[in-house]
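Notebook, p. 212. Picked up where the previous page left off. The plan for this session was modest: take the two constructs that came back from the sequencing core last week, fold each one, and keep the raw output in the notebook itself so nobody has to go hunting through shared drives later. Recording the first one now, exactly as returned: residue sequence, then the structure token string.
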Amino acid sequence: MSKVILYTTIFLMFVTFNSQAQEASYGVRIGANLSSISSDDIPENLEDSRLGIVAGFLAEFPITEKWSFQPEFQYSAIGNDDESLRVDYLQVPVFIKYNISDRFNVHIGPQAGIKIWEWEDNTSVETNFNTFNLAAVAGIGVNITENFFADLRYGFGISNMIDDSNIPGGTKGNTRNIQLSLGYKL
């Protein structure tokens, strides 16, 4: 699965850099994640979702009038509400975007993340998270004005985010999150 995502990303980058369509645009976005770790191994009393922040930068490279390629770089606070199940990532979502009209768009793509922080005082649950996380993300967007926009996204973790190397029998856990953000294109 990860080879398909890698080849798709390389193809999209090739198409984008060879495109003679419109000029690229750049922007910033900030918003909120409502996230959780989906796992049969997490006790029921620790399953509450976490409300976290997401903030980042984006670039949009038009391919045609309707299609564009949109890589991003963002900080994202995800996990569960319990402190021992919180983890923060630097993420790189890479979207293919389709503009339904001048106002609305849909976008889909892979998202790679690198862990930059996890709760160290694991008193309630001994949880360690893998350094790398891979997810699939889909969303809808609306252009509020020429520069301001909003988007709503759903992310589904593909890789196991829980480091189970010290757990007999192993354990699995995947991220799930809904993200609402506002942005500004320069």
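Okay, moving on. Second construct, recorded in the same format:
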Amino acid sequence: MTSEDRPAISTPATTTLANRYGGQKRALSRKAKRNIGIAALAAGIGFMAWISTSLNTETVSFTDIGYSTTDATQAEIDFQVTKDPGTSAKCAVKALDAKFAVVGWKVVDIGPNPAEATPDGGRTTVHRAVVRTESLSVSGVVDSCWIFGSEK
């Protein structure tokens, strides 16, 4: 094989960093930076407004005390509620059967309390809910409580 029969060896092309990795990226324009800043500021103000309006300073908590089943059509659920004495609340209580299916449900109104009603200034009160059931219940619990109104 002669030198004429061999393919020509190409010389390496001179490559620059820009050809290999691309050119420098352009910086954001002053207008684009300003628009991004305004959008971020508006989003921050909107978030703070949402947080401040969605926070409910009035809270209510509950604790299950016990339950009793009088017969297959009725259950009694005892619970305590802690809330601000001047507010009203509602609590959803439920009676459950052996398979944890709900067999009775009731929403109980918890009215405002006088401050001298309990040793803690009327915050914690004990309640009993009588719930009608469709079959024999083996358990009774408070599902949830929420603030309903304010008497201030």
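Notes on construct two before I forget. The chain has a mean pLDDT of 85.
Flagging for discussion at group meeting.
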